[in-house]
Amino acid sequence: MRCLRVVLSASVALLALPTVSCSSSSSSPGTTGPGPVITLASTPYTLAPGDEKYFCYTKTLDVDTVLTGFTPNYGEAAHHILLAQTLEPEKDGFSECNVLFKTTWVPLFVGGKGSTPAKLPDGAGIKLLAGTQVLLQLHLQNAGAAAITSTTGVDMQTTDPTKPYTQAGIFGIDNRAIDIPPGSSMYETKMNCHASKAMNVFAIFGHMHKTGQHITVNRGAETIYDADWKFDLQPTTQKTLVIAPNDTLSLHCFYANNTTAAIKYGESSNTEMCSFVLYYTPFDGLDGCVQN
Hints:
The protein is mostly beta strands. It has no helices and 24 strands.
């Protein structure tokens, strides 16, 4: 049995309960920042040991909205969240959605376990017109020996939609050509991405899974990101950077596979990924590079 109750005020509340019992919660209008805070948050979900689930919720906005920042609120068992605008209508309300990503989802914010807030620079925003459907996807996995009950959500800061702003968005780099040999350490995967446009970058986010050790991004001979990887702490890093058209970005991910089997690309936390996101202005459409 699944229960769904929606409470609307100046904020949007997302309430979904994929468990054997029903409960509900509500949200109140945001009181900080130049506009109301829109909160999308689950009611308590329960995962049995070994469970791995994808849950989605959609909501159609009633008024024009300009987003200026995102604060994820991660609960236990949360692997990642995706906040997106849908280009084609999805099922209203709560549903299980066993898919990592659709080409009809335009990402607004992505975050991994322990991700920090992302703030848009002054004068930048992401405008969503009244009638826009937004989708929040939760990827949850319980790798422990006991059941987990928790909640996960995201707060979206807003501003006056009548004021001028520069549109912000995401450029993504995703290496899916991953095949990590058993018994390997600091095994490297890499790909090159040629920037298709000028981008004024204001934040960046890298993502791997449990066997990740290190991630590096170069622009030509210049290193623009270099950090050890911690699955339980996946920060969104505020970084000012200007990317020119045709700049070559090289993404390098390093892994340690202590198992007796190869580890390949996949959506599960037990497989691997190598991806990198640039938040930038001026945004003119979803773009990026994928290596299969």
